[in-house]
Amino acid sequence: MTPEPFGARLRRAMDTRGALCAGIDPHSSLLRSWGLNDDVAGLERFTRTCVEALADRVAVLKPQSAFFERFGSRGLAVLEKAVEEARDAGALVLMDAKRGDIGSTMAAYAATYLDKDSPLFSDAVTVSPYLGFGSLRPALDAAAAAGCGVFVLALTSNPEGAEVQRSHVSDGRTVAQVMLDHMAAENGDARPMGSVGAVVGATLGDAGADLDINGPLLAPGIGAQGATMADLPGVFGPALRQVLPNVSRGVLRHGPDIAGLRTAAERMTDEIGAVLARHP
Ligand SMILES: O=C(O)c1cc(=O)[nH]c(=O)n1[C@@H]1O[C@H](COP(=O)(O)O)[C@@H](O)[C@H]1O
């Protein structure tokens, strides 16, 4: 049986649970502020609390792989368990791995995150196209076959990204626009939207790019990096309904109290709902 495409699953999750992607980023400073040690036991406790508080209510959970990898195999075991439990509780899991490599190695990354028999099998994964969009082909194909998604970095939230992403290619487009055009071609006219998403920082002020890719637009940068939900219409314009705002530290700093985490996530979800209501 063909699996339901990620774009359709995400659209439903955003429409029913609200458009929020909550990050699970176990920074050592956050572990300490939660009264936990910066060790595997602290990581496990932190992660379990996030999943328990949020997986049954937010549309998407985005664990940042690096914070788990830094503890080696025992950190990865915590991540594997979190992915499984979060998916069981109804959240879509977007693995923030930002992988990008030559095609043959990309196939191994695809097998890691997008093969249903892998212990880290996730609903979607973040990838970097800056080895050339075509290098992502193994991940794009694996995602399509498994009903998964791929979020491709386009215009990142950090100020350093512009020197690469805003530079121009010979036909006058920016590098980021070339990537966005590839994403639009991948998504075609899929309904309700395609499964290839773009990452576009909420911090950008004005994206200055054509974001009409018929796919989701992951918008990190809200909260700790200074952007707010109210900035989203200015950045995304007519593509606002495709936007999936990501908040990590802005929610996590309200832990370890489960109710505190839930209230923070609900407030963020309500804020994006209010922004969408004002910009129908
Ligand atoms: O792909 C991402 O998620 C991402 C892309 C980007 O351009 N900027 C960005 O901040 N992120 C990630 O989004 C999260 C933002 O975290 P907070 O700043 O704590 O909300 C981190 O996990 C980043 O790695």
In short:
The protein has 280 residues and is α/β, with parallel strands linked by helices.
Model description:
It is an enzyme of class 4 (lyase). By secondary structure, the protein is an alpha/beta fold. It contains twelve helices and eight strands. The protein has a single domain (about 5-280), classed as TIM Barrel. An eight-stranded parallel β-barrel has the order 1-2-3-4-5-6-7-8, surrounded by seven helices. Strand 4, helix 7 (about 135-145) and strand 5 form a beta-alpha-beta unit. The model has no long low-confidence stretch (mean pLDDT about 95). Orotidine-5'-monophosphate binds next to strand 8 and helix 11. Orotidine-5'-monophosphate binds near residues 25, 157, 221 and 223.
Q: Can you lay out the helices and strands and say which pair or pack?
A:
Blueprint: H1 6-17, E1 21-24, H2 28-33, H3 40-54, E2 60-63, H4 66-69, H5 72-88, E3 92-99, H6 103-114, E4 124-127, H7 137-146, E5 149-155, H8 162-165, H9 175-187, E6 196-200, E7 217-219, H10 232-236, E8 243-247, H11 249-252, H12 258-278
Bound molecules: orotidine-5'-monophosphate.
Enzyme class: lyase
Family: Belongs to the OMP decarboxylase family. Type 2 subfamily.
Protein name: Orotidine 5'-phosphate decarboxylase
Outline the biggest β-sheet: 8 strands, parallel, barrel
In CATH terms, what is the fold-level topology? Answer: TIM Barrel
N to C succession of SSEs: HEHHEHHEHEHEHHEEHEHH
Radius of gyration: 18 Å
Question: What kind of oligomer do you see?
Answer: single chain
The percent range for helix content is 40-55%
**Gap between N and C termini, in Å?**
36 Å
Strand content: 5-15%
What is the second-level CATH architecture?
Alpha-Beta Barrel
**How many domains is the backbone divided into?**
1
**Count of DSSP E strands?**
8
